[in-house]
Amino acid sequence: MAPSTQVPMSTTSTTTEISNGAAVLHVDKVKVARCCNPNLSPDKLSIRGVVSELLSVANAEKVLISLGVGDASSYQCFSEGKPFSRPLVHSVEAGTFDCYPHSFGSPSARHAVAEYLSKGLKHCLCESDVFLTSGGTQAVQVALTVLCTPGCNVLLPRPGFPPYESFCEICNMEARYYDLLPQRNWEMDLDQVRSLADCNTVALVVINPNNPCGSVYSPKHLLQIAETAGDLNIPIVADETYAHMAYGGSKFVPMASFTNLASVMTLGSLSKRFLVPGWRLGWVAFCDPLGTLKQVKVGMELLMNVTAGPASVIQAAVPDILSDSHDQFHKKVLTVLEHSADTLYGTIKQIEALKCHSRPQGSMFIMVEVDTARLRGINNDMDFAKELMKEESVLVVPGTVLGLKNWVRIFFGTPADLLTDACDRIKSFCERRLIP
Ligand SMILES: *Cc1c(COP(=O)(O)O)cnc(C)c1O
Question: Which SUPFAM superfamilies does the annotation name (predicted)?
Fold first, then answer.
């Protein structure tokens, strides 16, 4: 813990007398260095922090290939024909959206998100169930903030998405980790979920399709998850940032299909499927026919009233962006992703010291196990990422950052030629380092 006392910056202090009625107070005027919130710990590993450290050791003679941070939006093979700028240009030019938007989000955008999420559900969402946020990250932040009660805990997946842990810390919520099981297609260890939960557990966080594992849960597993949450009487925070980004025969099924068993807060974003991460538009949707989240929703209204959401002009473009008319674009993106997933999976399978237990079925990531005992000069995942950068200028994320030591996360939302080049470099690196 950081010290809670303020550190004097200057030794010159003057004493002033302040007359406060009869009493005379002596106040030391000392220049102080303000402490920041001690929960903002510099020791915590963040993806961005580790990535910048890795970037600093890149081999200057090789062009950097980043398979680190998950942003495919800059590559032409994905962004070509992206149909979302026109609706945005329209909303900017109309000039009618220059005022403050409603703090929960503009009615038409909330309505569009509600309709988008309701497709195929028995229980449809309405406009008032949806709150618009500044990207999926703010959706994570407000969902956790609103659920936070004194002494509470939250169940998070391991490996996971680091902002959950960071926001838990900032809110003073205890994070408890359940495992995703590589041998079982990265399904959740639901026995462990049951053993971790207690009467202070306020949410079970489920990420599907999954970052970092690339898994997509079957309807059967989703049902088991909902049954577990229902038995334990805890709501599910369903992070569906990668909704519909499923391929290779798997299909995305929303957690909200099971709201007869457990209440669900669905988190989403335009960042991944729509490839506009910089536009910062996300949402929290209450899928709660059982009504167990009524109070939480009131809390969300109070919170959103003091929280600034996404820009008005982006909100105005949402109905068009979410419409069915862009299906061809989404299909094309999935075709490229599936091809990339196969290329990467095929390469990893050929490398002796690396192992991945299943082919990615969704999102844009794969988790790869590193057999450090077979690689010279590599004691852990951090070493692997660093040495790979030093020699091959290929950036991957060490699993330690995500809670899984001696694994690495590899992003494959890159053009085919770049990925093939990266695969060749990873392969030759591992071959050079292989201990026979
Ligand atoms: C990217 C991501 C988010 C955050 O989305 P942004 O819109 O980029 O803020 C949330 N959850 C998961 C699992 C993600 O991968």
Answer: PLP-dependent transferases (SSF53383)
